[in-house]
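Sequence in, structure out.
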Amino acid sequence: MKMRVVFCIVFAFSISLPLFCQDSSSHAENKNEIAFDAEAILKETQNGGFLHENDGKKHWFTAVGGLLFWNVGLSTYNRFVVDAGWTKVGPEQWNHFWTRKLEWDNDWYWTNFVLHPYQGTIYYNVARSSNLNRIESFALTTVGTAMWEYLCETNAPSKNDIIYTTVGAFAVGEMLYRLSIEADEIHDALGILVNPTRMWTEIWTRQKPLGTHGNIHELSFTLALGNAVGYTDLRGYSGEWEKSEVYPFFFAPSLNVTYGNPFAHDSNDPYSQFELEMSGAIGKGSGTGAACAYASLDKKIFYQIRILSNGMLISRAPEKLNSEDVATTVGVVMEYDFDWHSYYLLSTIAPGIAIKQRREFQKNALEWHAHLAAILLGTSDFYYYRRNFDEVFIEKRDNPSRPYNFNIGAQTKLSAKVKNENGSSVFASFRGYAMYDFYNQLQEFSDGTHATHTGWDFVGILNLGAEFALNKLVKLGLVEEIYTKFATYRTLNDVAQIVNTTSAYCKLQAK
């Protein structure tokens, strides 16, 4: 393994060296020695700095070198620092690696549906920052993912990881790539924070990533204070457990970005228009925790991490649907949702179609969106999210560390907002999911029978709210959110749930 690490690092350095030393003759005293001309470097810095204008050329060696550096470095860290058993790979795993059977895995939810898409984003953005186009970057992401799954783990290659690390990386990576370029307008360090792969590519190419500034249509920061109440009805179950849960208070900061004008947007450039919401919440727990390694902590705290996004892959602004007062966009969209709540789990990757429209009236405007997408791969919480309502059931489970189902299905997003001329508004939104929990996904009992066998999850999340503008920058708002779920399984009790969340917030409308 040590020889392999050294070889990969040397290889990554050697293939990238020509890009760094573009004119070696001016710096070399002889064929066997490279000497740096301090005067020349100082002069160049004064005339434009270390980074030059991007020449648009594709730097394949830099992209591939970055991918290898990341995989080898991360694998080495996990093996020798973390001492993770699953990283102790060798000839036994590499010999005929292509014959290893793909399986579903039961890793922690955060690992599968946040860390894996972000790992894929590293592959994707090191390619994009090396001037590769989206298709080439996606191809390199697929190569990096396969290398990791087949060569860097003793575990069986994972079906869900391959999907989330590739398709999820495209959905997340392209947004971060574009936002990184926008962040440069504030400070270069912020741009690198959004897209850390630039620390690699800018060293070797001496160029910033290609892209334009000034594409942020709306940008806001919000701080909310609220509480939530949940209720679960386990159909046909006669045992005792806490049906109601109360989360007295929580704080929730969030960031909302609209990139590009959503209305009358006509483009073949994927993700030239997208919307991104990222929020977190922390507060007092309900006293009923999950059956997990951190059960005592889970009883004490309330938490939620939410990432919701949609990016237009191709869009049109039909003349028949547009006029002086009406701006309309129709097109193909990619949805990426992640919702990790004390009470439930939900995530999807879903391509679909969307229509977005803005109508201007004399004193206000109506903005509405309608999306319909097919869930390529999704997840939902399995059987009331690990609550200890049945000790026999918990003990019988073969994989208690994975409290969720993989599924496919359909989802929709509907939203409407009425804005008046001073910036105040009322709004409503709905997210709906019909998710089919399919057979043979490692969710089984120790006796070999499958826990879900097959089943359906139907989830709806409704938001109703109002915003009051104090001035152009500051708004105060109230929002009511109602989460409902009905799950029906072939071999287990059906489940009905509802969570009611009320919150008040202060919003800083930066743009």
